[in-house]
Amino acid sequence: MDAVLYALLCLIWGSTWAAIKFALDGVPPFFGAGLRFALASLVLAPFAWSRRKRALTRDDKIAIASCGFLSFTASYATVYWAEQYIASGLTAILYCTMPLFVALLSAFWTKAERLTSRKVSGILIGIAGTAVLFWPHGELGARQAAGMLVTLSGSFMAALNLVTMKKHSKHTDIFVLNAVSMAIGAACLLALSALTESMAGLHWTRANAAALVYLSVVGSVASFLSYYHLIKTMEATLLSMITLIFPVVAVALGWAFLGETVTVMTGVGIAIVMTGVAIATLPARRKGAAETLAPEIP
């Protein structure tokens, strides 16, 4: 079951980078992201209400706050803002630094996982492969540079949230977690939009409306329910390796549905990414399910 959820997440989140581009056409970034999570939280609210059987514990509150402020507010605000100025593929590349941040935080902050040389090597090889896939050409302007730096900061926020969730969300109901934290994210993003964005250029089309619904229902509700289930059952660094597969999925979908050309360099990049994933995950598999599928950090 976990393997199926892992593959589904790779497929969904590999497609959301392009969907965000569609959603930003005529819609300010913070406003669009806020609407995304407002809709998603409304979809989840009835399920969360029916499943809440106990008062929230301290760990529940920490997990919800981390998810709401670090992930659904800070991390997504940076991604939506950055995609105004840099390509969705480049955003995915920069987000692929997340596994390295996770490994470092898990080793030196929570002290939950060992930072082995094999794990670091696999992550770095995977990042190099995504660079081969999408590395931009031409001069780098100030806005593009700012977009790249902002995306890196969002990657760090997502990594910080992941290791925090791994530590505190063991007993938190995933419906309650996602409904409440998405509502927090929506409120913060819409408040940020009200303070910084103008609605003068806002216009809705079938494309950006469909992208909003897809990002809310599939890219948020379905994917994050799966993601936070896997946080409870998989090693944090292994789970974060999903970010290295996003560009591969994007290339495959572009070739299959948009007629995009898969060049020799594209094939090389895909091979490098998959090699990095294999190197980083093989040690865990060799040690067996007792480590990779443990419900809590040892």
Q: What's the arrangement of secondary structure elements?
A:
Layout: H1 2-23, H2 29-51, H3 58-82, H4 88-95, H5 98-108, H6 117-134, H7 142-168, H8 174-196, H9 206-233, H10 236-240, H11 246-257, H12 264-287, H13 289-292
Give a description of the structure.
The chain has 13 helices and no strands. It is an all-alpha fold and 298 residues long. The relative contact order is 0.21.
Q: How would the global form be characterised?
A: globular
Which oligomerization state do the chains in this entry correspond to?
Answer: single chain
Count of DSSP H/I helices: 13
Q: How many separate domains?
A: 1
Relative helix content:
over 70%
- Structural class call reads mainly alpha
Which segments are poorly predicted (pLDDT under 50) over 5 or more consecutive residues?
283-298
Please state roughly what percent of the residues sit in beta strands, choosing from under 5%, 5-15%, 15-25%, 25-35%, 35-45% or over 45%.
under 5%
C-alpha-based Rg, rounded: 19 Å
How many strands appear in the DSSP assignment?
0
What's the rounded overall pLDDT mean?
A: 82
Please report the distance between the alpha carbons of the first and last residues.
23 Å
Major β-sheet, in short?
none
H and E order = HHHHHHHHHHHHH
